[in-house]
Amino acid sequence: MYKVLIVKLTNIDKNVINEIVNHLSNLGFHVDVLGEINHINITYFDWERSQFKAEKILEFISNKFKNFPYDSIIAIGEIDAYANGLNFVFGLSTKKFGTVYLSRLKNEFYRKECDIQLFINRAKKEVTHELGHTLGLSHCSNPNCVMNFSNSVQDVDKKSAYFCEECRLKLNINNKR
Ligand SMILES: [Zn+2]
Ligand SMILES: [Zn+2]
């Protein structure tokens, strides 16, 4: 069984974290949540763009938690971030370490009415997606698979929160190595 650690970069609503943990547990992962918040260094903020630099945050998390005995460590924050060459990212990951940025998963970001359940569903999908990357999965062409690439919240809403059979198989194979 894969061991996953969730790390908070900002304060995040308890219900949101609980629903993410329940979802990942249902998928068969062992999930722990680190109690304290790991605040992001202000030098990772790009004042011209008003966004955080995702690569910097990923590097910070990778260094800080490199000796932690988990298969995957996912840092989540209610912030907006971008990566080199992209206007924004919902998340950024390498092997073992992942980050998820929640600001753009909220309807309020697009001046639409707040919808907490929709926000939670989107957060569950994006955390599961980045978790897949940390365990070696690439993007999947199955439009229903959680590993399908999302360029907008509309894309996120279209896919499911689950791995397709092919991706599940790959996870199982990796797990047995
Ligand atoms: Zn991806
Ligand atoms: Zn898939």
From TrEMBL:
Belongs to the peptidase M54 family. The keyword Cell inner membrane does not apply. PANTHER family: ARCHAEMETZINCIN, ARCHAEMETZINCIN-2. Monomer. HAMAP family: Archaemetzincin. GO terms for molecular function: metallopeptidase activity; zinc ion binding. The gene is amzA. This is Archaemetzincin. Its cofactor is Zn(2+). The keyword Cytoplasm does not apply. The active site is at 130 (proton acceptor).
